[in-house]
Amino acid sequence: MSKRKGVSADEKRNRMLQLFYEKKEFFQMKELEKIAPKEKGIISQSVKDVVQSLVDDGMVDTEKIGTSVYFWAFPSKAKNSRKRQLNDLEEKVDCTEKQLKKQKESLKQAMDGREDTSERGETLLELKKQKELREQLLLELQKYKDNDPETFQKAKKEIELLKEGINRWTDNIFSLKSWCKNKFNIEESVLEKQFGIPTDLDYIN
């Protein structure tokens, strides 16, 4: 006989939120511990932890009235909360794109003044930082992919533009490496080590 698969923590959270959204009422913990197992398949022993995790993340509201503590969550608040979070992420993506543009200009200046090798090295290091920040933003955006498809798609298009900018920047770095290699007869490995260029630097697909 196959072992029955348990419900994951994320699934419990989703089910509990659905319970709040469907009922649109105020509950005490003891009420949730009775309703959740019957309607959402969440064992009563885990209801308190699930609700608390949602409260900690600001997805469920709670208030003590007299000696009783009540919990509630409405779909409208969740939608507005996701919208604010997505807007914040879009602003961060926009800020990162501007930083990438600025660093691209710095790289161009460094290429024009090739004797200033320290500036080129700093620019390449900044490229690495901005790429890491971009990856973090992509991970954050991914969390909201299933919650607000329309807004996520808009942010995704902006990220594609950001990716194109990074690839153009990467192309400039390759051109700079090639120029230095041919002009000064320097080995590629020496250039990469001197200017902090990752050996696996490549275009983003």
From TrEMBL:
UniProt GO molecular function: double-stranded DNA binding
Sequence ranges assigned to domain Mnd1 HTH in this UniProt record: 16-75
Family: Belongs to the MND1 family.
Biological process according to GO: reciprocal meiotic recombination
Protein name: Meiotic nuclear division protein 1 homolog
Localization terms from the record: Nucleus
Pfam families reported for this sequence: LZ3wCH, Mnd1
Naturally occurring in which organism (per UniProt): Rhynocoris fuscipes
Record domain Leucine zipper with capping helix: where: 150-204
Stretches assigned to coiled coil: 79-172
Keyword Lyase in annotation: no
Known function: Required for proper homologous chromosome pairing and efficient cross-over and intragenic recombination during meiosis.
GO cellular component terms attached to this protein's record: nucleus
Lineage, highest ranks first: Eukaryota, Metazoa, Ecdysozoa, Arthropoda, Hexapoda
Keyword set, alphabetical order: Coiled coil, DNA recombination, Meiosis, Nucleus
